[in-house]
Design brief:
The complex is a heterodimer of chains A (183) and B (232).
Chain A: H1 7-15, H2 19-39, H3 45-59, H4 67-89, H5 97-110, H6 117-127, H7 132-143, H8 148-155, H9 159-180
Helix pairs in contact in A: 1-2, 2-3, 2-4, 3-4, 4-8, 5-6, 7-9, 8-9
Chain B: H1 5-12, H2 24-36, H3 43-63, H4 67-96, H5 177-182, H6 189-196, H7 224-231
Helix pairs in contact in B: 6-7
Classes of the chains: A mainly alpha (183), B mainly alpha (232).
């Protein structure tokens, strides 16, 4: 955790409305949160990110815990925002690849890309074969490094359900990758 | 056959599988996933988002009273409710026993105002003496005398009825209106006495109307000439 020992002080200052504290929290969590939101198929990931942080501000008085708990908590809020968007649209997203691709396209145009676009396209295509919950588990566990327990909190599932989801995700990936191998 | 729990945990942690070598391809995919999707930039929206957050935080801070003040109010409310509950229970018990519940209250006088000041400790003994208007309308409000003779040194417990805190209901510990009228806040009596004292009572502090002893400074009579008249 980048904030580390200073976290209680930063959180306290944020609760009192200190802009510097909110800027620090935003700097720490916004990028990865945006990645997660985009991976979940949000129609406007950056707008959803802003709304998520507003929810953080409003609900901060109800939060108590350490930095790890705070991180899980804001991801939970982000997940809730995305689900609300799904319900508003009357659907669940099948693939978030378009959103991720847009974000990275913009990034690629402004700075050098870390990986070829075609590689990302391939990866996104493979991820599209997973259902939203399996994809969420993979992103949270692999990209964001959350534990099974933390992932369960974010997805509002039991730890057993998370283990089942990740198990099925891995199995589906294996089957997809094997099917892509040349005969 | 599906992947083992051990292999799944290892793969998600970025380690190669052990039980099923066929999962090594999945491991490679997950490594590619980490490299291909680093956290995106938020440069384009950071400033607006942070400004909005700070504005909302300030708004929230204004809407929410300070925790300390809130806790103090809550504590006072709880104490008041508890006191009223105890009083109510006592009245109920007394009534059930056939006794006059109000007569059991210490210092409560429904008859002649001999003991105007009840020793009944109000729920807020430390509160400043509230305006007298709620007890005796005619009593004017004048600055409490600071003279030594006014108080005997021991602050009289403020009558609960005088409490003016907006969170607290006005009560007179069950005293009747008569008692209320005779009852005076500690700080008031001194000047109040002289002020409101009927003209003839200038030199002789009107015992009946207010707490006698400490309240009747004999020096007062001099000024009273102008005061007594206007006291009303």
């Amino acid at each position: 955790m980048a904030i580390g020992d200073r976290f209680p002080h930063v959180l306290s200052a944020a609760g009192e409305g200190a802009e510097w504290a909110w800027a620090e929290l935003y700097e720490e969590y916004a990028p990865t949160l945006l990645r997660f939101i985009a991976s979940q198929g949000a129609s406007e990931p950056e707008d959803c990110l802003g709304e998520c942080f507003i929810q953080v501000v409003r609900n901060l008085p109800n939060f108590s815990g350490d930095e790890a708990s705070f991180r899980s908590w804001i991801y939970l809020l982000a997940r809730n925002r995305v689900v609300d968007q799904w319900r508003a649209a009357g659907r669940r997203p099948v693939t978030p690849s378009g959103d991720l691709a847009d974000i990275h396209e913009h990034r690629r145009q402004s700075e050098s890309a870390d990986a070829p676009l075609d590689r990302r396209d391939t990866i996104e295509g493979i991820l599209a074969g997973l259902n939203p919950d399996q994809r969420a588990v993979l992103v949270l566990r692999v990209l964001d490094g959350f534990s099974v327990e933390e992932t369960a909190v974010i997805l509002r599932r039991s730890q057993g359900a998370v283990r089942v989801l990740q198990h099925r995700a891995i199995k589906n990936l294996r089957d997809t990758l094997q099917s892509m191998e040349p005969a | 056959m599906g992947p083992s729990d051990s292999d799944v945990s290892r793969l998600l942690a970025g380690e190669p599988p052990v039980d099923d070598p066929g999962l090594s391809e999945v491991g490679g995919f997950l490594t590619d996933l980490r490299e291909a999707f680093p956290p995106p930039s938020v440069d384009g929206v950071r400033e607006s988002h942070v400004a909005t957050m700070a504005q909302e935080a300030r708004r929230q801070a204004e809407l929410t009273p300070p925790r300390r003040r809130r806790m103090a109010r809550q504590t006072a409310a709880v104490v008041s409710v508890a006191a009223l509950s105890v009083f109510g229970a006592g009245v109920g018990v007394a009534a059930a026993m056939g006794a006059d519940p109000l007569g059991l209250l210490p210092g409560l006088r429904l008859g002649p105002p001999e003991a105007p000041r009840s020793a009944t400790p109000g729920p807020r003994p430390s509160d400043p003496v509230p305006a007298p208007s709620s007890i005796s309308p005619p009593r004017p409000r004048t600055p409490p005398p600071t003279a030594a003779g006014v108080h005997t040194g021991k602050p009289t417990p403020a009558p609960s009825v005088k409490h003016t805190d907006k969170d607290e209901p006005t009560s007179n510990n069950g005293k009747s209106d008569e008692a209320k009228a005779e009852h005076k806040p500690t700080a008031m009596p001194t000047q109040a006495k002289n002020d409101k004292a009927s003209p003839p009572a200038k030199a002789t502090p009107p015992v009946k109307a207010s707490p006698p002893a400490k309240a009747r400074p004999t020096d007062k009579p001099s000024p009273p000439s102008k005061r007594g008249k206007g006291a009303g």
